[in-house]
Amino acid sequence: MITMTFDRHRRLRANAGIRSLVREHRVTVNDLIYPMFVEEGLKGTSEITSMPGVMRYGLDEFRKEIVRLSSLGIPGIILFGIPSEKDELSSSAYADKGIVQEAVRAAKSENPDLVVMTDVCLCEYNPAGHCGLVRDGKIVNDDSVQLIAKTALSHAQAGADIVAPSDMMDGRVQRIREVLDDNQLTDVSILSYAVKYSSAFYGPFREAADSTPAFGDRKSYQMDPANAREALREAESDVMEGADMLMVKPALSYLDVIHRIRETFTQPVATYNVSAEYSMVKAAAKAGWIDERAIVMEMMTSFKRAGADIILTYHAPDVARWLREENA
């Protein structure tokens, strides 16, 4: 008689019930945040050609979409604004009746329980397409921080639950926290884009948000994709300045960074499944090269396995539907 000494790992994979019982990570609808683009003066919707299925919304259709997303159980959105006018001071970013501010009010009127996040940046609002003020061809830090904080305050005053500075200027989290607290908005959270890489994966977003830099690139303020230890320093600074949550962006090529942040800090960790990650899947699925549903759910699971608590993704409506079908 032959004595078997190896482990029978396959026992725990024998059938679907056992596999479900021992599954270590699960994606749920409560993990999802849907990024949305709202355009000032737009009537109806305008499809973003490089991001199939993703739209720019005028406020009328935006309201209808909020109702639809709420019916799918998606708990929150993050808003990006496309203004009708741009200027060097990005004044539309912090205007009381700016497009994001009006969209926050519209979303809350349709569903007061929806978690409304706002992207806080200046790039969509100035002709240079940079995330801060431009002087003599350089993106200046400290004066930019003042306008970024002013923008965050205007979003919070409009009713945003969470403000998410994505500019990567030094010191902006501290200044935002000070401004919010000075205006009795202590309950408004800060989700910091603590670790935002200067990535080629943002290409389709630039079309969506009309934010392509008019000159140069963003490498002087966004992180080098080669660096991981730097991510820990960036995140530590934001935590010390008052960040309530930390974001790693992009997601798919930075799973190791998500894991490092998760292992180092106790704050909730978000990751952004960005535009090119989305568009590549859509293009391959359209060509019949992949199983879109299986690929997307595997990606979502990988984000959770790496340590993300929150996933910002353009796939959110599809994922919500698929999860509902699985649980029906």
UniProtKB/TrEMBL annotation:
Its EC number is 4.2.1.24. Pathway: Porphyrin-containing compound metabolism; protoporphyrin-IX biosynthesis; coproporphyrinogen-III from 5-aminolevulinate: step 1/4. It is an enzyme of class 4 (lyase). Coiled coil: none annotated. This is Delta-aminolevulinic acid dehydratase. Belongs to the ALAD family. Catalyzes an early step in the biosynthesis of tetrapyrroles. Binds two molecules of 5-aminolevulinate per subunit, each at a distinct site, and catalyzes their condensation to form porphobilinogen. InterPro entries: ALAD (IPR001731), ALAD_AS (IPR030656), Aldolase_TIM (IPR013785). The gene is hemB. It catalyses: 2 5-aminolevulinate = porphobilinogen + 2 H2O + H(+). The lineage of its organism: Bacteria, Bacillati, Bacillota, Bacilli, Bacillales. Keywords: Heme biosynthesis, Lyase, Porphyrin biosynthesis. One of its GO terms (molecular function) is porphobilinogen synthase activity. Homooctamer. It comes from the Bacteria.
